Amino acid sequence: MKKHLIELVDVNKKFDSNFILHNINLYIEKNEFLTLLGPSGCGKTTTLRIIGGFENPTSGDLLFRGKSILKLPPYKRQVNTVFQKYALFPNMNVFDNIAFGLKIRKISGDIIRQKVKAMLKLVNLSGFEKRNVNFLSGGQQQRIAIARALVNEPEVLLLDEPLGALDLKLRKEMQIELKNMQQKLGITFVYVTHDQEEALSMSDTIAVMNNGVIQQIGTPQDIYNEPKNSFVADFIGESNIIDGVMLKDFEVEFAGKKFECVDKGFNTNEKVDVVIRPEDILILPENIGKINGKVENVTFKGVHYEMLVRQENYLWKIHSTVMSLAGSIVSLKIMPDLIHIMRKES
Amino acid sequence: MKKVFLYSYILWMIIFIVIPIILVGYFAFTQSENGVVFFTLENFRRVFEFVYIKVLLRSINLALICTLICFLIGYPVAYIMADKNFHFSSTLLFLFLVPMWMNMLLRTYAWLTILEKNGIINSCLALLGFSKINLLYTNQTIVLGMVYNFLPFMILPIHTSLKKINYSAIEAAQDLGADSFTTFRKIIFPLSLPAVCSGITMVFMPAVTTFIVPNLLGGGKFMLIGNLIEQQFLRIADWHFGCAVSLILMAVIFFAAIIFSFVDTDDEGGNLF
């Protein structure tokens, strides 16, 4: 049997009587970029801290190459962490911060100097050795924190919302830089974020979490195109989520109309959630599409317009590059394969 | 409006700090004979006589011992109290602060009843069949009294600075391979060093100038520089010599403070200078 690099087996974490994590099973392969994605308080940081050794699970096991490492203290684990607020050592300059891990492993001074220099070049901060870390910008501190972890050549790098404090433009740049570094160095990344766009653009695999439970694990494409439940659909990208009834295989009724769809295997007249992405709805002149409605609100979003169309008591969200005038009556059309049917959460 | 407040502080400082220091200087550099006041360096020459230098050195010696003991006791206490898993830290802090609500004279008197010939300790010893021992009027007793009185000044700044350390920096050190001792040596202690320096200054200064403690617990047997100054003013009424000794003592403290302020490069709060 092939061994996974890291394996979480039935991990539970209880605080008082509340489950922070509930039966987490997760495999991480070598060289994989895995993202734990979820809203704040979903348990993603706790999962990361368990891997790093800063928290102990209430039950369950954590395997590294098939061997349990639960009993190892953080300083003996072959993982390094980039902390949320960088956690640089304020009493040391840039060089000493990056060299910290190497000095502890008693590596010779010459090699340390070479490695730190190479690492600073990698994060585009050459010549910063003597700088005081307290006077660096957020982006620079963040890159020092990454360099400080990467210089130890860990097998696994854990990153806890490392780009959370940066502005949008810098965040986008760092996303690309991080992804390049991960591919160049061949290090396994476990990345925690609540930003779905970040997760989609960087990851090989995404684990979507909510309330301490993994909702879905898959590639970014899978998760975006085939969300397993309405939570995932709602959290990843924007969605219209409507109550519907499955009339029979390939036919669903919602918003007072019958629609052809591509799903089957539901009970007759089973109540379901119908999920439709805003960009998957076509706006047509009145009475041509299936649903008629009145455009209530139009917002310019840069690449596209966002239109809110009122149909009785439901408000449809639609993204389109073509603007419809507010107040006009339009009709909506949805192709069968763009209608996603999901079982109701019990 | 701001300036009005500023002037009131300046006025306060002039009346209560600048003028007294000028007066001390005036007395120190003068002598009076038969009502005639004249300039002289004689007072300072006298300070450097062997007897007085011995008093000064003994004071500095005892104050240094007291400061060292305060550090050795205070740091671990502050460290334990700053631990986020320690639930009694506010109780402990409270217990260390309560004696400070009392007058220092009373606090020191309390030790007399504990240590004296028929005091609590000796009574207990007698009950157990041991012979009584002499606990009062030794250098050790004076140091004990100083440590007791000035220990909170060491604990408080260190405690505050340890509390302020970003816990994730400690986790980061462990993450990078440092065990608990290395984490303490390379991260925690260096980050608390500025507070240690202010703690040392805040203990050393009152310890080197105190006269209550040696008066009560030393029984006047061991003259310290504080006693010497007190004696010049209250008993011998030689203000000129007393002022000269005071100025020399101020210089000693000033240089000590400068030495500590070199170590103390962190410009965050909690420091004296």
* Strand content range of chain B: under 5%
Radius of gyration of chain A: 24 Å
Largest sheet of chain A: 6 strands, mixed
CATH names the topology of the domain at 41-87 and 136-263 in chain B as MetI-like fold
The portion of residues assigned to helices of chain A is 10-25%
| Number of helical elements of chain B | 12
SSE class of chain A: alpha+beta
Helices and strands of chain B: which structural class?
mainly alpha
Strand order of the largest sheet of chain B: 1-2
Strand elements of chain B, count: 2
**Number of distinct helices of chain A:** 8
Give a description of the structure.
The complex is a heterodimer of chains A (346) and B (273). Chain A has 2 domains: 6-232, Rossmann fold (3-Layer(aba) Sandwich), CATH 3.40.50.300; 238-343, Beta Barrel (OB fold (Dihydrolipoamide Acetyltransferase, E2P)), CATH 2.40.50. In chain A, 24% of the residues lie in helices and 36% in strands. In chain A, strand 16 (291-300) and strand 17 form a beta hairpin. Chain A starts with 5 loop residues before the first strand and ends with a strand. Chain A is an alpha+beta fold. In chain A, the strands form 4 sheets. In chain A, strands 6-7-8-3-9-10 form a 6-stranded mixed sheet, with helices on both faces. A 5-stranded antiparallel sheet of chain A has the order 13-12-11-14-20. The model of chain A has no long low-confidence stretch (mean pLDDT 91). Chain A is elongated and about 75 Å long. Chain B is an all-alpha fold and 273 residues long. Chain B has a domain at 41-87 and 136-263: MetI-like fold. Chain B has a two-stranded antiparallel sheet. The longest helix of chain B is centred in the N-terminal third of the chain and has 33 residues, at 50-82. Chain B is globular, with a radius of gyration of 23 Å. The chains are: A alpha+beta (346), B mainly alpha (273). The interface between A and B is medium-sized, with 24 and 17 residues.
